[in-house]
Amino acid sequence: MTIWVDADSAPNAVTAILVRASLAREVDVVLVANRWIQKPKSLRVSVVTVGAGDDVADDYIVEQCGPGDMVITFDIPLAARAVEQGARVVTPHGVELDASNVRERLSKRDFAEQLRSMGIETGGPDAFNNAHKEAFANALDRWLTAQGK
């Protein structure tokens, strides 16, 4: 059981929650990024720096994750691929994605991308705030508890 983090876009507060959970709940966390990031002070947290390029970090996470793992990402295509691998996905905003809802999210994301390509402004995710931080911490706790951690 490993938590895989799309670390290029993860808010610092999410990383801090994961570091605390790695120690308290004895779970391994892997931060994957295509830029250098400082390794947090936890023996249960590791950092993997992949090469530059679109989807290189995503591809690495999908190749490594599997059933029983969790993936943390805002990236909906990555989420869909991770769900196909049997992983549970949670966004940094605390939204849980699984086989029952990730395809709908992917369709909405693709539609918004089509609108943007036509010059229509669609906006992005809400700025990370304390409500998101709490929702993420609660989703993580539910998953860890279900895993017996």
From TrEMBL:
Top-level division of the source organism's lineage: Bacteria
| Signal sequence region | none
**HAMAP family to which the protein is assigned, alphabetical:** UPF0178
Family membership noted in the UniProt record = Belongs to the UPF0178 family.
What's the name of the protein? UPF0178 protein DN745_05145
Q: Which organism is it from?
A: Bradymonas sediminis
